[in-house]
Amino acid sequence: MSETTKPAPTFATRNAADPAFWDERFEQGFTPWDQGGVPEEFRQFIESRALCRTLVPGCGNGWEAAWLFERGWPVTAIDFSPQAVASAWRTLGPAGAVVQQGDFFAFTPQQACELIYERAFLCALPPAMRADYAARVAQLLPPGGLLAGYFYLGENRGGPPFAMPAEELEALLAPGFERLEDRSSAAPLPVFQGQERWQVWRRRG
Ligand SMILES: C[S@@+](CC[C@H](N)C(=O)[O-])C[C@H]1O[C@@H](n2cnc3c(N)ncnc32)[C@H](O)[C@@H]1O
């Protein structure tokens, strides 16, 4: 059957807080959020910095984590969906060693991380979990630590991906973090409708 006549996938699970939701989508190869490579703003950001211990939560296929690993960065990438982890291992070859199964809200890195990379993870969480996300990133990063990546901003019209008004992100992160960078993503994926922004936040002391 050609791509054009392929029926739309159907899914049994609707709760994005359940790993089974993501398992189904990875099993069926339905991953419209997956860039299949390393986005430009992230590449430039990393190339301008010294190595630092990095955590990639909700990594999916983990392209960026594999790229960091190949550059010699100390990186750990986690995903709570067994099928996402299996997909990353199949996709990344030896660099897949940096990907492990874990729930961001329960996982503690062996060594404290200094950078958390965000891509399509916060917007994958049901909105009721956003405060827990902000608390967890603040807990995991020391003063001066960075939360950097892509944030899907706009009116919330359901999801995932769940867009978030810019003021809500500000209210969520500003108590614990100072924003250092904020610009449109140069090459947004269609699923994010041009509303992804590259931002860097520094943990307050
Ligand atoms: C939209 S996908 C994004 C994957 C990847 N960051 C990317 O950009 O391709 C969201 C991912 O977050 C994972 N996820 C959701 N909640 C999680 C949690 N509490 N802990 C770890 N991973 C989680 C899902 O299994 C899924 O692979």
TrEMBL record:
Keywords: Methyltransferase, Phosphoprotein, S-adenosyl-L-methionine, Transferase. The keyword Phosphoprotein applies. GO terms for molecular function: S-adenosylmethionine-dependent methyltransferase activity. Signal peptide: none annotated. One of its GO terms (biological process) is methylation. Gene3D superfamilies: Vaccinia Virus protein VP39. Pfam families: TPMT. The keyword S-adenosyl-L-methionine applies. This is SAM-dependent methyltransferase. The lineage of its organism: Bacteria, Pseudomonadati, Pseudomonadota, Betaproteobacteria, Burkholderiales.
